[in-house]
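Continuing the series of single-chain predictions for the mutant panel. This is the parent chain; the variants come on the following pages.
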Amino acid sequence: MNITWDAGSYTRNFSFVHQYGEDVLALVDAGPGSFAVDLGCGNGALTEALAQRGYRVLGVDASAQMLDTARKLHPDLSFMHGDATSFSLGQKADVIFSNAVFHWIDADKQALLLSNIARQLAPGGQLVCEFGGYGCAEHVHAALERAFAARGLSYPRVFYFPTIGQYAPMMEAAGLRVVYAALFDRPTPQKGPDGLRDWIHMFVKTPFEGLAPDVREDIITEAVNGLRGELLREDGVWIVDYVRIRLKAIRI
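Parent structure:
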């Protein structure tokens, strides 16, 4: 995981992450009482949604800040600190669910991620996941890349946004049979008049590491101003041009 989270701001201002994740839950169809893991559980909102569907749940996250928030918001649920590429369960899971997580994991660790998930699933167990797909937030990243380049700087593309054709074979190589796959646009509204700036502050941190705060803010301002014609709606709401990849696979 290549980001440090501001759990409070995430919960207050970016609730769309788990709200959209509710739709992904429709792909989970294990029987009542099944053991379901919410991998990259964040503040626990979707762990709670899984519990409400009758599953025995465990939330797993690599962020201590997020887990602290999850335990405060959902004191009756179980949570565990763990990295997605190496976490280990006391028993095999019937379901591993993950929303908006895999794109934060470096490309060279994706095979490790999938092989670990396969090890934690019981035979016939389900992996249901959604994360950023090919082209996700490309308008934003391209604008930041241009602003970096104008200052003689390189903008690192730290996110992993695959196509179905790239990702499904990796799942199959890990012993996961893909039964559903979709790649789709999901333009996503942001809160407030500074919605795009706030989104960049929350989700685009690694590229700015080592830069002075004033340089960072100048770059963000330039990118935001350059995107007004593309991502600012007539009603004043900022949109981020999300693309999502949604997958379901069965442990062979």
